[in-house]
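user: can you give me the structure for this one chain? tokens are fine.
assistant: on it. calling the predictor now.
[tool input]
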Amino acid sequence: MLKDNRIRIIIGHYGSGKTEFSVNYAVKLAEEGKKVALADLDVVNLYFRSREKAEILEAMGIRVIGGAIKGSGVDLPAITGEVLTPLQDKSYEAILDVGGNPQGARTLGRYHSYFTEGEYDMFFVLNANRPETATAEQAIEYIVKIQDVARAKVTGIINNTHLLKSTTVEDVMKGYKLAKEVSKETGLPIKYNVCLETLVDKLPEEIGDNVFPIKLYMREEWML
């Protein structure tokens, strides 16, 4: 059972897999019988956004909140006021999938009054295979920049080191090592170690019991 705070903000560098994690997180909450809302606040990346899987997620009972401007071929960086609903309505388990750079995180500024310490989590999704966050120093610098513009503090690290469908145990453990370095330097806990469902039984015991198995909802069957 997922026991994080009611409002979860998911941040991470472009290519970290934060949207895939957000979608899988929403699905797991729904499977636990929770009332779930997933808000796509990514105004940076025009591809692989959680709102693109709205039909699948809504069939699972998940409320998907996307852009304010809808229509065929319309894709403008606008955020709908509907985001306020799961922030204000405490019957919801809220997940905010945020743009993958400090500029994208600026969208959080307007909601900072809802981010009361102890009532929200902001998870930093770390992919050690991304050159921009391949070292602890780079990852920490990124965390600091995000916090400054988001007006909220990161509360945990998500090790999501992957190579999409080619991800190996070695990739996961590479990320675990880096996440431990970042955790040691910042005091932030490693909340989850993400891996494909097929890798769960192959992980060494040292990784602990916070393994988070995922499916690749954001990758079509024909994609690598």
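assistant: here you go. The chain has one domain: 7-214. Residues 7-214 form a domain with the Rossmann fold fold (CATH 3.40.50.300).
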